[in-house]
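We emphasize that the prediction below concerns an isolated chain of 257 residues; any contacts that depend on oligomerization or on bound cofactors are therefore not represented. The input was used exactly as deposited, without trimming of termini.
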Amino acid sequence: MLPTTSPHSNGDPGSRDAARHTAGAKRYKYLRRLLHFGQMDFDFAVWQMLYLFTSPQRVYRNFHYRKQTKDQWARDDPAFLVLLGIWLCVSTIGFGLVLDMGVVETLKLLLWVVLVDCIGVGLLISTLMWFISNKYLLKHPSRNFDVEWGYAFDVHLNAFYPLLVILHFLQLFFINHIVIINRDWFLGYFVGNTLWLIAIGYYLYITFLGYNALPFLTNTVVLLYPFALLGLLYVLSISLGWNFTRGLCLFYKYRVQ
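Result of the prediction step, given as a token string:
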């Protein structure tokens, strides 16, 4: 996505106007490339998706390189966003098939998942993290360094991708087959809740790596604290027999009624 400020601004009106102009130009270039698939580097986007599972630190090293060469932390190529959207559509259609939804119900679910779960929640989380990081995590708040909102959105997309693959794709094979996690029995909610633990754990860890990669932030370790709550919730869910996947399936069916 795109930056909204320039870290090299000196605070005078001319510099601020230049920063806004630069951000606007980059935003226009990014949106324009959405309409020109030939200008997108899908091979590199696939590389990033693979390494988000195996070595997410390497993905953020590329963000450092982009900052040095293009003076922005956020992506300037929408290929990753396009591929993520394709993954989201395919996996949601898969959910519709697994849950025996009709064509109209599946389309309703697809619209809800894309517009609310991905875009709406993504904008909310990105804005919240952008505010928190700029308000509480800057090493020197008085200096002209801040977290680009576009970078915060990119971090969310990076963290969201493994969660999407685990909960919206891999989990499909277990809902009505293999272990049958869409049923209230121990092995079902143990496997299902473990998948949720791994997916949310990926999200938290990749989010931490994203903000920890910025040299002008401090105390980013606080972003790992939710792991304690996640572990506690997992133990409680297994002890009390909560089935998160069954709840998700019921919620999806309720959405399309």
